[in-house]
Amino acid sequence: MKSLFCMFCTLAIASSVSAQETGNAMLKYGLNFLKTPYVAHTLEVNEEEKLVVNFDEVDCTTFVEYVLALSLSPVKNGAIDKTDYARVLQKIRYRDGRINGYTSRLHYIADWINNGVKHGFMEDVTAANSPDSIALSLNFMSSHPKSYRQLASSPENVSKIESIEKALSGQTFHYIPKAKLPDEGFSWIKNGDIIAITTNVPGLDVAHMGIAYYEKGVLKLLHASSTRKMVVITQKTLAQMLKNNKRFTGIRVVRMK
After folding, report:
1. How many domains does the chain have?
2. The domain that contains 231 carries what CATH number?
3. Which of 50, 99, 127, 193 could form an S-S bond across to 174 if both were Cys, CB 3.0 to 4.6 Å?
4. How far apart are the first and last CA of the chain?
5. Which residue in 53, 115, 62, 44 sits closest to 85, CA to CA?
6. Is residue 1 part of a domain?
7. Residue range 43-88, pLDDT digits in tens
8. CB 249 within 8 A of CB 198
């Protein structure tokens, strides 16, 4: 792993695209991750649940979490303090900011967004701008325990996850159906907004995440791509990306506060 102190200094002071050009901390930090390798399951490295920080390898969720935590962390004397960063990241990744085993991690993006809104560092801007909504029906993790190391060997964790799923199911969230998203996006979707791509996979709410990025008047996605195996900006528009994937149904838009 790269030295976190050096990485924080680099991200806080220098950027491939300056804050003045992007006008947005999420893009300032996010663009520094371009070409970072995509690797799944980087949080599953400890027997006991601990906060993991790995800037060398990211998946779609950890990429967004790291960028959001950098954007929310205070810069002191030109750098981000490791302790401050860890505190912010833990607040983003874990329910109420407390680590209490595997199930305290916010695995479902609906839960992740609820936590961010509750604690005042995220705003779900879709609700005010799109009338379309879906009721949650979550059971993917408890229905596929063998896909998760911490569930495959722990009926207790499966039971806890099932309780979380039941508590979330029935909640309604607003989204933009992919048929209604134009290539140019909408004026209310801003550079640096978090884009959560909704899915028709049974028992799941969101299949992918990234950061809104406007290029030459069209909306693209800055994201950790499992197909291109690294952090990239989509070659096609976000709207075309959604249309080309039968499992994608639309997007939720979340903004850092």
Report:
1. 1
2. 1.10.3670.10
3. 127
4. 30
5. 53
6. no
7. 999 999 999 999 999 999 999 999 999 999 998 888 899 999 999 9
8. yes
